[in-house]
Amino acid sequence: MLSQDSLDFFRFDIASCLRQYSGKKICFFPNPGNAGDSLIAVGTYQAFERCGLEVEIIDLDSNVKDQIVFLGGGGNFVPLYTDVKTAFKKFLGRASKCILLPHTIRGNEDVIASLDDSCTVFCRDLASFRHLRAVNPSLEVRLSHDMAFHIDVRALLDDEETRIAAQNVLTEKLNSLGLTEGMIRGWPSVDMLRLDSESCADAPQSDVDVSDLFALGVRPNEARLAAWCFLKTISFAKHITTDRLHVGVAAAMLGVPCTLRDNSYGKNHSVYEHSLKHIAINNNATSFRFKPGTLSAASDEPKSLALSRHLDQKVEVFETELQQMTLALATAQQELRRRSEALAEAQQQLTSAAVEREKLISELARTRQDLMERTEGLANADAELGRIKANWSGTEGKYL
Predict the structure, then answer these.
(1) Could you count the other beta carbons within 10 Å of the beta carbon of residue 90?
(2) Spatial separation of the C-alpha atoms in residues 367 and 382, rounded to whole Å
(3) Rounded Cα–Cα distance for residues 149 and 250 (Å)
């Protein structure tokens, strides 16, 4: 099992992001797929719960106007699949914020270029990080680790309610392939290889493709069921050979010896270099190895060289993030200058308006004084006219 220190390391970046939304309602679009995606989903739900988020699960037709939307992590933002690409096209411009959880990303340059400052993208490998920075340098891109590392594996496997619901499913699914728990426990090694288009083999074969076997869904209850069966089956093995990334991740979290091979577009190797190699380096473990998809022997890289390479990668990421922050600071300074100039112009306009107001007040005072003088003159004239009329009436009386 991974140490708490290792788990805290893998979870740090995402947990820091999620805590910003503690106590708030967010929308979550889980990435559909196989049992590996169920593992990701369970890790995501647990991360949300730990950080105190109020979660509404949505689909592509949901109304996300002015909502904070999280898109599930995984390997869906590549040319082989369309769910994340479609989700971005559906939600961009409607949601107030779109956050893609840790992903492997290839291609999709048109969508990546369209992502604006309402978007944040987390990558789970350096190749994806570099790809996004090259295509859209202004996009907020962060480097993190797979969401499956957010699962509390022991708590999930020990949960009695889940065990009761999942045990029969596990047994029936294994039996459907002519397998039992005892058979898997008895084999010195189990091939848990993929049989789909991501396989590097010309004619792929496997003892059991657990990712496909336990593809039960990614909503909370079905994902929890799938993840339990997935993890439990992997825990039976003495050793596993796989080209399924999340079989490798699960094996690493369970402490099951594993040889991980690459998939068709380099996803496994990239995530191994960024995340899984840490397990071997930090724990001085030799039970987890990466083997190229061609079945050639793995090279045993010295620990010092691996650490040096990892530090070089970290420096590259930090330099890129520093460039992003410098650009953001320059943009903020430019905006501050613009607002300062606008404020100075507004103050000048206020000063001019105040001067004009004083002029108007003075003019009104003069006009008022003039009116008062004219009113007084009219009153005097009216009194004089009254006296004249009175005198005129008296004179006429004399002559009548």
Answers:
(1) 17
(2) 22
(3) 9
Domain count, the chain: 1
Span of 13-22, 108-117, 329-338 with lowest mean pLDDT? 329-338
Pairing of β 258-261 and β 240-242:
parallel
Is the pLDDT at 329 greater than 80, yes or no?
no
Closest by CA to 151, choosing from 260, 54, 305, 38, is: 38
Q: What is the DSSP string of 282-319?
A: HHT--SEEEE-TT-PPPP---HHHHHHHHHHHHHHHHH
Q: Looking at the predicted structure, is the pLDDT value of residue 18 above 50?
A: yes
Structural domain includes residue 377: no
Distance CA(342)–CA(381), nearest Å, equals 57
Can you give the residue range of the structural domain that contains 105?
4-149
What is the Cα gyration radius of the chain? 37
Does 302 map to a domain? Answer: no
Among 320, 14, 334, which Cα is nearest to 139's?
320
Amino acid letter at 131? Answer: H
pLDDT at residue 304 greater than cutoff 70 = no
Closest to 10 in 3D by CA, of 148, 126, 153? 148
Dist. CA 239–CA 379, nearest whole Å: 116
Q: Which of 114-118, 335-339, 360-364 has the lowest mean pLDDT?
A: 335-339
Q: What is the mean pLDDT of residues 113-131?
A: 95
Question: Is 9 contained in some domain?
Answer: yes
The pTM (predicted TM-score) of the whole model is 0.74
Are 77 and 108 within 8 A, CB to CB? yes
Q: Where are the beta strands (DSSP E) in 84-188?
A: 97-105, 119-123, 140-143
12-16, 92-96, 293-297: the lowest-pLDDT one: 293-297
Interatomic CA distance for residues 343 and 366, integer angstroms: 34
**Residue range 175-189: mean pLDDT, rounded:** 96
Q: Which CATH number covers residue 39?
A: 3.40.50
Amino acid letter, 70:
F
Interval 4-18 mean pLDDT:
90
How many residues in the chain? 400
Coil, strand or helix at 367: helix
Query: Would residue 162 count as lying in a domain?
Result: no
Q: Which residues pair with 28 in a beta bridge?
A: 57, 70
User: Residue 386's pLDDT is what?
Assistant: 84
